[in-house]
Specification:
The chain is an alpha+beta fold and about 180 residues long. It is built from five helices and six strands; from the N terminus they run H-E-H-E-E-H-E-E-E-H-H. The strands form two sheets. A four-stranded antiparallel sheet has the order 2-3-1-6. A two-stranded antiparallel ribbon has the order 4-5. A hairpin with a 2-residue loop joins strand 4 and strand 5. It is elongated, with a radius of gyration of 28 Å. About 15% of the residues are buried. The mean pLDDT is about 80.
């Protein structure tokens, strides 16, 4: 699809959402990713320039300005990871379709983006963690605790059933032995 058509479609979606009484947003399907895609950028923009523009909607924790391997020049698109996923919604809604240095940029969500694997020995611990784990929102502690408790409950249930089964088997084997000894 033509990038400009894509920009217009996203703007229409946002407009329709504002006028409708829907309880959910089209952004909800991207709630597990804090990454956004930026396309159609001027080739002479640097990472610093992109951060200046996009940091107005949240703290940027990772940026990948895609460059040509041979020349090192920008290819005109990038991926950004925000600290908070809600910042992606603000960036997509407010920066999609704006003009930077005469070029209309496209800003959209990325559902399953992972930062490229670089030489991990040359990067700091935080960057390495972001690249391996991603920077999507982490489940709240209560939710993690609830899942942990459910697992423990299932494990206890399984152990109880196993114990019951062994007891029944032992009882059955005693009966069999007593039947065998009484028949002699």
């Amino acid at each position: 699809m033509n990038p400009m058509t894509n920009v217009k479609n996203v703007l229409k979606l946002s407009e329709r959402e504002l006028t409708g009484n829907s309880k959910t947003s089209w952004h909800d399907q991207y709630k597990d990713s804090a990454w956004i895609f930026i396309g159609g950028m001027p080739y002479d923009l640097t990472e610093g320039d992109i951060i200046c523009v996009f940091s107005q909607y949240g703290e940027i924790v990772n940026i990948n300005l895609v460059r040509d391997k041979a020349t090192g020049k920008s290819r005109g698109f990038a991926f950004i990871c925000y600290e908070d996923q809600r910042s992606t919604i603000l960036a997509v809604d407010n920066l999609n379709g704006i003009k930077i240095l005469g070029r209309t940029i496209r800003v959209d969500h990325c559902e399953q983006y992972r930062a490229p694997n670089a030489d991990m020995s040359k990067i700091d611990e935080l960057t390495a963690a972001v690249r391996t784990e991603g920077c999507a929102p982490v489940a709240p502690k209560e939710e993690i605790l609830k899942v942990k408790q459910e697992k423990e409950h299932k494990e206890n249930k399984r152990k109880h059933k196993e114990k019951k089964r062994k007891k029944k088997k032992k009882k059955k084997s005693k009966r069999t032995e007593s039947d065998y000894s009484s028949s002699e």
